């Protein structure tokens, strides 16, 4: 594109000084709609499935795929809300600890109320909302950087779960139909857990893409000054988003309880924040906010789940799996930064 | 990075020059084919409207940008300036418009930051630092005005600039070229005189000097040659004693002032925006009133408080006192949402930083403020949204391949139109436009003037902030002039001229002393 010579005075008012950018060809814009990132995720997923399928006959069987799906559900739920908070420019690394709190509270309230599953869940939800709102308030009104605030939360909520539970698994819920249904039940051949993931994913997707709330979340992450000047109440939105994380992390915690049969302060929830953030970053969320979507995140969750299961099936040491996960997270962000083409000077923003 | 040959320093050869420089930022061509020399011992003034390419050219000289085509020459030899450090090593220095001062370091540490003297044990050599700063302060004649121990945060604007000047003058290699980027915008009158004396002394020392300024009077006092940029191209180079203000303006705008936009004025209606004694951190005791169908211009120098007034009215800056009434509704202030609901729109000064979501589509950008009118049960009605945004992007003639286009890929003029589309969709009663034509090309400017005139005809009350006086004179029914956070005068259309506005914008420099200013002389 080139600048046309400055217009002569006589035609100033009508001559466009810049040609409009070239029209994109339709196939290319179609591709852009699906997203290059998502396509490469699909490619990677197919590759992983094919690789482990070749190495191990049991890998691509229906039962194993179901195991992968179930194992990925809890990570998936957290990755969904992590996506939302990253889009609006924040981060939450306390999600794993929040799951622990929810798991313990749901089991203990269940036991204390004389085996009332509903009461157990409501109690966990109440605590989850409180924890989420607290995160939001600390960040917005305490002016604490989200990473630091939720790093503090990571420690504090883990401690809270351990205090409540005395550091041990609490209660036993598998004598209750509701918990059994959540953890083991099936609807139309699919595990209930997976259904829950699907429902939450659809809900979050609708929220992000089709409501004014979602638009405003993208706006806040894209340019918070401009969002503020456009009249968006940023504080309200941030507290809302962290509260939403609290709710969804609680759902994940209840599922963890249902899965393991008791309230787990740390087992099964430690390290989930890493997986959730990795999935969101792999899925194409820009860590500076304003960009990302549910589709990419879900694909990344599937990829991570398939990889983890494959490595386990192949008997690869879990220590290596940790290394792989760390490498994946860094790799995803490096690729992302390369694409934005920023200059390598000083600390990244 | 090529190390430049150390040629004989003949005053006749240009120390630094640019040859065939072209710079593109994505689709936007910022500079095209600039060839220009900066001879030793001469002050070359660089002029041009906002967005003409002056700062891009400076950034290429200082290694901040790399030219798309062409190169910088040093003593006639082409050099690659890959980084600011390379340019500095080559002897090219710039005094930025906003001095970059480390607030917690002393003057001495600020001056030598990055090359502090140290002992063999890598510790800061305080004795050597002290010796150097004292010697340099005396050598360059700043000993009276700068105390080496003052902390950066306590310096006046003028002193901050002097620190930048010292940075430019010191260093392993003496400067070949020093560029001043609008150095006087934050200086008071006697500080300006001191600066001029310094520039003249540097000229005598055979340094090549580049002086970027909008102020004609300064240019004619200082410059030997005047280079004018227009729309990224070199419109011409003149000897200062062979040209005059009128000729320069013609070169800058490509036409005589008289052909600039003039709108038909009408009898304004009821007062819509009423401000009484508004006081904020940067604005003092401002009262004004804008009526329906009226365009009120707000003039003043950079830092006069115009943008801060706009942001306070839009609810983005806290209000300390006074009242703002919008069509009879008293605003509590401090909440942009409240002002918007009452019918106010603000297209802020920095459209990329303050208004646009560059990664998002034209549609998302344009509809943001009116989403609440387009939704049903919180779901945005897509077709209604498309229709509405199309209506306004068509009306404003936004040139974009589709509504789904990322705003960041549009040209500056079209980006500004997207901002305007957002506010037009809101159907505001009051629209505040802060530098609405900054950095956009001439054709788009004319279109924006047309939009402003149309809006006034439709009965919108408009407050237009602009540093381009011809623009204000063409558009405004009245011009308010601000200085030091206050309104220092009001001129109706008949009284307003560039001279009368500038007089109100600058004269009180002598009587009102802005906090912190005026101690360095």
Layout of strands and helices, then pairs:
The complex is a heterodimer of chains A (349) and B (521).
Chain A: H1 26-34, H2 36-55, H3 62-87, H4 95-112, H5 117-141, H6 146-165, H7 177-184, E1 186-187, E2 190-191, H8 192-210, H9 212-222, H10 224-229, H11 234-260, H12 272-282, H13 294-313, H14 318-340
Antiparallel strand pairs in A: 1-2
Helix pairs in contact in A: 2-13, 3-8, 3-11, 3-12, 3-13, 4-5, 4-6, 4-11, 5-6, 5-11, 7-11, 8-9, 12-13, 12-14
Chain B: E1 14-25, E2 28-39, E3 43-47, H1 54-61, E4 69-74, E5 77-79, H2 84-89, E6 92-95, H3 107-111, H4 126-139, H5 157-169, E7 177-181, H6 189-204, E8 208-212, H7 216-222, E9 225-230, E10 233-239, H8 245-253, E11 271-279, E12 286-291, E13 295-299, H9 306-313, E14 321-326, E15 329-331, H10 336-341, E16 344-347, H11 351-355, H12 362-367, H13 371-374, E17 375-376, E18 379-380, H14 382-395, H15 412-425, E19 430-434, H16 442-457, E20 461-465, H17 469-475, E21 478-483, E22 486-492, H18 498-506
Parallel strand pairs in B: 3-8, 3-9, 6-7, 7-8, 13-20, 13-21, 16-19, 19-20
Antiparallel strand pairs in B: 1-2, 1-4, 4-5, 9-10, 11-12, 11-14, 14-15, 17-18, 21-22
Helix pairs in contact in B: 14-15
């Amino acid at each position: 594109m080139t600048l046309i010579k400055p217009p002569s005075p006589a035609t100033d008012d009508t001559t466009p000084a810049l040609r409009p950018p070239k029209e994109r060809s339709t196939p290319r814009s179609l591709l852009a709609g699906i997203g290059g990132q998502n396509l490469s995720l699909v490619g990677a997923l197919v590759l992983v499935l094919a690789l482990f399928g070749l190495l191990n006959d049991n890998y691509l069987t229906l039962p194993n795929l179901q195991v992968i799906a179930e194992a990925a559900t809890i990570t998936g739920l957290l990755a969904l809300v992590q996506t939302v908070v990253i889009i609006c420019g924040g981060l939450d690394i306390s999600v794993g600890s929040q799951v622990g709190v929810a798991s313990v509270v749901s089991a203990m309230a269940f036991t204390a109320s004389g085996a009332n599953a509903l009461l157990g869940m409501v109690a966990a939800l109440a605590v989850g909302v409180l924890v989420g709102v607290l995160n939001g308030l600390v960040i917005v009104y305490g002016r604490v950087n989200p990473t630091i605030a939720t790093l503090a939360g990571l420690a504090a909520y883990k401690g809270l779960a351990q205090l409540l539970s005395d550091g041990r698994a609490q209660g036993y819920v598998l004598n209750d139909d509701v918990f059994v249904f959540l953890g083991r039940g099936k609807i139309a051949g699919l595990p209930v857990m997976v259904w829950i993931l699907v429902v939450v994913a659809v809900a979050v997707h609708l929220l992000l893409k089709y409501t004014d709330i979602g638009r405003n979340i993208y706006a806040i992450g894209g340019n918070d000054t401009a969002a503020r000047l456009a009249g968006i109440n940023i504080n309200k939105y941030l507290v809302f988003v962290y509260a939403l994380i609290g709710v969804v992390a609680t759902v994940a915690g209840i599922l963890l309880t249902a899965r393991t049969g008791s309230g787990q302060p740390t087992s099964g929830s430690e390290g989930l924040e890493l997986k959730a953030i990795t999935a969101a970053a792999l899925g194409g969320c820009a860590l500076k906010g304003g960009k990302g979507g549910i589709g990419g995140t879900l694909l990344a969750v599937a990829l991570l789940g398939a990889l983890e299961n494959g490595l386990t099936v192949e008997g690869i040491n879990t220590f290596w799996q940790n290394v792989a996960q760390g490498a994946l997270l860094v790799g995803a962000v490096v690729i992302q930064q390369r694409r934005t083409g920023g200059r390598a000077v000083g600390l990244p923003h | 990075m090529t190390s430049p040959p150390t040629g004989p320093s003949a005053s006749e050869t240009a120390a630094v020059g640019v040859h065939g420089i072209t710079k593109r930022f994505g689709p936007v061509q910022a500079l095209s084919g600039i060839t220009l020399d900066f001879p030793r011992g001469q002050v070359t003034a660089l002029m041009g409207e906002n967005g003409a390419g002056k700062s891009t050219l400076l950034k290429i000289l200082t290694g901040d940008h790399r030219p798309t085509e062409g190169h910088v020459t040093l003593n006639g030899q082409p050099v690659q300036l890959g980084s600011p450090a390379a340019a500095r090593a080559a002897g090219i220095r710039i005094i930025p418009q906003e001095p970059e001062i480390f607030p917690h370091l002393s003057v001495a540490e600020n001056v030598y930051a990055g090359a502090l003297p140290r002992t063999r044990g890598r510790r800061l050599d305080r004795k050597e630092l002290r010796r150097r700063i004292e010697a340099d302060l005396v050598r360059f004649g700043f000993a009276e005005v700068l105390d080496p121990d003052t902390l950066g945060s306590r310096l006046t604007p003028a002193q901050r600039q002097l620190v930048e000047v010292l940075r430019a003058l010191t260093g392993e290699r003496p400067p070949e070229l020093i560029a001043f980027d609008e150095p006087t915008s934050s200086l008071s009158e006697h500080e300006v005189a001191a600066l001029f004396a310094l520039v003249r002394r540097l000229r005598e020392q055979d340094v090549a000097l580049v002086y970027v300024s909008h102020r004609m009077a300064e240019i004619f006092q200082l410059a030997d040659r005047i280079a004018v940029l227009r729309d990224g191209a070199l419109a011409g180079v003149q000897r200062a004693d062979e040209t005059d203000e009128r000729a320069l303006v013609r070169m800058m705008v490509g036409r005589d002032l008289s052909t600039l936009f003039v709108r038909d004025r009408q009898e304004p209606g009821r007062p819509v925006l009423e401000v009484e004694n508004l006081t904020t951190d940067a604005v003092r005791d401002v009262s004004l009133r804008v009526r329906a169908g009226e365009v009120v211009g707000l003039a003043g120098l950079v830092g006069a408080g115009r943008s801060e007034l706009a942001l306070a009215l839009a609810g983005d800056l806290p209000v300390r006192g006074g009242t703002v009434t919008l069509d009879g509704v008293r605003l509590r202030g401090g909440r942009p949402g409240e002002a918007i609901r009452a019918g106010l729109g603000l297209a802020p000064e920095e459209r990329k930083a303050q208004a646009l979501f560059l990664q998002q589509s034209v549609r998302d950008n344009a509809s943001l403020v009116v989403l609440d009118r387009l939704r049903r049960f919180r779901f945005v009605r897509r077709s209604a949204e498309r229709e509405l945004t199309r209506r306004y992007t068509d009306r404003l003639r936004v040139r974009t391949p589709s509504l789904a286009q990322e705003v960041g890929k549009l040209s500056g003029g079209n980006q500004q139109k997207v901002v305007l589309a957002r506010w037009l969709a809101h159907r505001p009663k009051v629209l505040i436009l802060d530098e609405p034509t900054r950095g956009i090309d001439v054709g788009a400017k004319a279109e924006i003037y047309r939009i402003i005139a149309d809006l006034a005809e439709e009965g919108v009350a408009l407050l237009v902030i602009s540093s381009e006086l011809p623009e204000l004179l063409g558009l405004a029914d009245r011009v308010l002039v601000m200085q030091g956070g206050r309104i220092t005068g009001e001129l109706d259309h008949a009284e307003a001229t560039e001279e009368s506005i500038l007089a109100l914008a600058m004269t009180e420099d002598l009587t009102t002393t802005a906090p912190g200013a005026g101690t360095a002389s």
